[in-house]
Amino acid sequence: MMSKVDMADKRAELDVAEIERYLAAAMEMADEVRSMIKSFITAGFRIDRKQDQSFVTSADLEVEQRLREMIGSNFPEHGIVGEEFATINPHADFQWILDPIDGTEDFAHGVATFGTIVGLHYKQWPIVGVIDHPALDMRVSGAFGLGAFQNGSRIAPVSSESAPGDGGVRMVISARANFTPYDNSGPLFDALVRRYPNHRIYRSCYGHTLAITGHADVMVEYGNHIWDLAASQILIEEAGGKYVTVQHLRLSDIETIYGAVFGRPALVDDITGLIRRPDR
Amino acid sequence: MMSKVDMADKRAELDVAEIERYLAAAMEMADEVRSMIKSFITAGFRIDRKQDQSFVTSADLEVEQRLREMIGSNFPEHGIVGEEFATINPHADFQWILDPIDGTEDFAHGVATFGTIVGLHYKQWPIVGVIDHPALDMRVSGAFGLGAFQNGSRIAPVSSESAPGDGGVRMVISARANFTPYDNSGPLFDALVRRYPNHRIYRSCYGHTLAITGHADVMVEYGNHIWDLAASQILIEEAGGKYVTVQHLRLSDIETIYGAVFGRPALVDDITGLIRRPDR
Predict the structure, then answer these.
(1) Would you call B202 exposed, middle or buried from its count of C-beta atoms within 10 A (0-12, 13-18, 19+)?
(2) Nearest-CA residue of chain A relative to B194?
(3) pTM for this one?
């Protein structure tokens, strides 16, 4: 869904006013969700486990339901792919991709780095992305050709220098638990943390936000689903960074596992080179 | 400074009212610092590098200076050990230990997890600890015999169960960069992240706060200084958890490197056992 290989950029078919309308809708959705999540934090919520043993809370379910209602009433012909409920209009050109609470385990434990992810893709090309962190009062947002923003302020272009001028590379990476279940990539995690020892691990989309804003230099995301990455490609590209899909495993008709590296272009090239080398 | 071996607990010499007075002073210091740091975030600050290439900002310097003024006017006979300035009254029974901004690199880059650490030790025994996170509106505080608190609410005792009832162990650990410079403990980092793959890395005291509040199960801190750990032992012990010093390297007359494991007692035992095993 995120590959550009052998495809003309379909986004040229859309005019700016239309893209602005979708971005405005995504921002309205993020506003609504932020206020819902703050209410859940105050009032409490139910915590359950899904079949795969991952966490789900009543907040995840109600937030995604509300996002689906908003999309359904504004854009009834659009498709919806979300973490918690079934796909809608799977053959539509426009696909909204939703993770109501990314980092649910952290949310359930009172850790502040969780976030809501809303992405809109058109003919498999990302056009709108929003990542909202209710507990941090922080949001990144952007759309094709319109730039990337942090809390409404335009994000300065991500540096193209290979190394940051101010010290060691600040890499954010998925936990080792994300590297092992699908394709036994534990040794890749080990090689990456050796090469870039000034790393952070958040287990949520906070790392995406930091790479997009330039507060971290590069993000390495592994073993995730489409909704975890739905907003990040358009956001990093609009911020002047580079995005490369490095893992694409079709587990079944309904489940595909994705990994991606994004951030400063020269670092993305270095890390994708490392991933491809058999002798790392 | 943190070992209890062969020492009677000197804290029995202090009465409750006195300890309450020190805790109140530490809370007042944290209030003052929080408001200063919020002002720096709004107004901006200067970023420099120290001789060891670590970051220092004008905020670190001014905050520590202010903390020293407050201690000096309230407790002129007490000692002060801080990250940014010279030691005062090194032979005093009471030693205030200060990290004005722990996670300065993150603070300088706009990452929210940095914090201020204030600890008070009496004859080498920790009696008061405060960790304050201005960007998260979160504080943990506690004192000997008085309990541990999160934003003023008593923290429920850390569970003594070996594994959390709700899934995989949530370990927070220092980055690999903290394990290699002093005693080549990189392989220990590798063994720990394999054993507990549901880990997080913050590179700041936010992981301490999560272990103390029970939001994470255990914290493994390596390659740090006394001011990084000055508040954590009293806080985790008052929250019902266990604290073990696992690294104590005297580099020179003025520099000692510390590591510690703290959190759920059974997990602390498991990890300290792993650290001691030569065949891990």
Answers:
(1) buried
(2) A176
(3) 0.94
